[in-house]
Specification:
Layout (H helix, E strand, L loop, with lengths): L1 H10 L28 H14 L5 H11 L1
Length: 70
Amino acid sequence: GSEDFAYVAAAVPACMMALSAGDTPYPLHHPKVVFDEACLPYGIAALAGLVLSDSACSSAATAAFYRSKH
């Protein structure tokens, strides 16, 4: 989870991205929060493009680091 991100980023090139999913009066983990699922294709495209275009953000590098620590 996000708790591990700082350790990974300290050892290998890393990046983090946030995707907004609409305007809601509730906080992120509130049971009544409703997200606009129309944003999902944009988030998927952004993440896929990042992984495919920049080896520094590849999941393979992160997975190799994580395996070496656990």
